[in-house]
Amino acid sequence: MKWHTSFSIIILTALMLSSAVFSKGYVGIFVFSLIINATMAISYDIPGRSLGLISLGHAVFFGLGAYCFGIAISIGLSFFPAFILSVILSFVVALTVTLLMAGLNHGYYSLATLGILIIFQRLFETLESITGGSAGLYIPETISKLHCHLLAACLLLVTIACHVFFSRSRWGLYSKETEASEEAAETIGIPTRTVKILCLMTAAIPACMAGALHLARNSHVSPASGFSLTLSITALLASRVVPVKGILGPLLGVLFITTAEEVIWTKFEGFNHAWFGLILVGAALYQGIDFKRRNRISTTAENPLSR
């Protein structure tokens, strides 16, 4: 496992240095996208790995953070008060959403997250006087791009710390027991609903903060870009496409997916969604086949007579 840690540190160091050196131009945009996507993927990985939940609506929290920050700036607040207010408001809404979904099992949870993503997208398109409608919300530059990059890099480090801390805490153990069997976990006294809520909120807050920093960097957010199904799938893919435990898997996944997205969106105009869909199907097939193969190996090892 030491090489996992060493490789993760190398990738993170490269991202940190790049965020400080490249803050403008095309390279700056790409580096910022890597950091934001890494934050989304690692935050998604917290409930994704420990609870085995598949969410199609992780971008709901990203959009909430972006719009809460944008509205706070629009009423005259400066960067840090607006950022703090956006975190508080996002926390309240995210907690409400999480409380609604914590009791759902895996299949219905995935369906519900997609439904909530669509609801928020349409809702923010309708509230045109507040959110700018389908055209989106524009804000003036409130912080330099360099400082925004550095804050995003710090957020990534904090998200990684949350991932490591949660996975090694007793709540991480409780969540794994909950994934294995909720009924058995409740029988031995594990509060499964509390475990789910804590796990999902640990994932939601970094995503909200990433949305606020994304808007601060780009000065524009729309319902389509804030509550984006593509962003949710990117976080899901990056978390799952590389079958390596810990934070190294999502980090490698982000490097691969973000680079692939950049090539597809620039070189295959008109077919970009089709290529992205192929990557999604390929990752699903690979993970599914690999999971079945591991189960067969495990079963054979436990029961030698089955050979």
- Counting structural domains, the number is 1
What is the subunit organization of this protein? single chain
Got a strand count? Answer: 2
Percent of residues in beta strands: under 5%
What can be said about the biggest beta sheet? 2 strands, antiparallel
Distance between the termini: 31 Å
**Overall radius of gyration:** 20 Å
Structure characterization notes:
- A two-stranded antiparallel sheet has the order 1-2.
- Helix 1 runs antiparallel to helix 7, helix 7 (145-168) packs antiparallel against helix 10 (192-218) and helix 12 (229-240) crosses helix 13 (248-267).
- It is an all-alpha fold and 307 residues long.
- The protein has one domain (2-231).
- The longest helix is centred in the C-terminal third of the chain and has 31 residues, at 272-302.
- It has helices at 2-21, 25-50, 59-74, 79-101, 106-126, 128-131, 145-168, 170-180, 182-187, 192-218, 223-226, 229-240, 248-267, 272-302; strands at residues 137-138, 220-221.
- It has 14 helices and two strands; from the N terminus they run H-H-H-H-H-H-E-H-H-H-H-E-H-H-H-H.
Summarize the entry for a quick read.
Helix content is 80%, strand content 1%.
